[in-house]
Design a protein that fits this description.
This protein is mainly alpha-helical. Helices cover 71% and strands 0% of the residues. Keywords: Membrane, Transmembrane, Transmembrane helix. This is Phosphatase PAP2 family protein.
């Protein structure tokens, strides 16, 4: 009777790096927070409805009274921080990644993430079906359901993705601080303008921020998990 030597044990699967584990934990926390807010909004939880109403009524009074700030808010929300502007910025960066760095995978990942974010946001809006604020003297108008804010979500997704890509390239201190400041101003600013103009409840904006940050965290996991960091942006140039 022949005895075959036992096969050597297979090596344990490598653990994901610490950065991926942190990102996964962050995604879990963001997902839980968004889910709680989604349930409260869908159930029309009275304390949340009351806070939304109090803040929205106050900001609407200020918006009606202060034409100058309201006009600036409309320009910012309709042109500078509009979702179409944000998506065009993403498209420009994707083209640059292909043209200057030959980073086809990164460009595709960026474009697909933005497209998925748009589709998922519209699906959640349709499912929740939350009405927007209604005023006898509106200063602006908007379409579709209210929750989550598409402006807040899109700005968060675009700024988050671009900041992550920039960080991977090892920017200088001045460039990094400038980019972070611009991203914070854009993400916070667009949320404030949506409430100021009376087209969203504050919790709509909070939902957009949370959901957008969740999508960024999941996108980073999708990008990095298979090969632990495929991005090599500084490696190759064209022209």
């Amino acid at each position: 009777m022949h005895h075959h030597p036992a096969a050597p044990p297979s090596p344990p699967a490598p653990e994901p790096p610490a950065s991926l584990r942190r990102t996964a934990r962050l995604a879990a926390v963001l997902g839980a927070c968004f889910l709680v807010l989604l349930v409260l909004v869908a159930l029309r939880w009275q304390p949340l409805v009351a806070v939304d109403g109090d803040i929205s009524r106050a900001t609407h009074r200020w918006a009606v009274r202060d034409d100058g700030v309201t006009h600036v808010s409309r320009v910012l929300t309709d042109w500078v921080w509009d979702p179409v502007t944000m998506r065009l910025l993403c498209a420009a960066v994707a083209v640059w990644l292909v043209w200057r760095r030959a980073a086809w995978w990164t460009a595709l990942w960026l474009a697909v993430t933005c497209a998925v974010a748009t589709g998922v946001q519209q699906a959640v809006k349709a499912v929740v079906g939350r009405p927007r604020p209604v005023w006898p003297d509106p200063v602006d108008s908007a379409h579709y359901a209210a929750f989550p804010s598409g402006h807040a979500l899109t700005a968060t997704v675009v700024c988050g993705l671009l900041l992550w890509l920039l960080h991977r390239c090892g920017p200088g201190r001045v460039l990094w601080r400038t980019a972070v400041a611009a991203a914070l101003v854009s993400v916070v600013g667009v949320g404030v303008t949506r409430v100021w103009l009376g087209v969203h409840w504050p919790s709509d904006v909070l939902g957009g921020w949370l959901f957008g940050a969740l999508l960024v965290a999941v996108a980073v996991l999708v990008y990095e998990w298979p090969r632990n960091g495929r991005i090599r942006l500084p490696a190759r140039r064209r022209g």
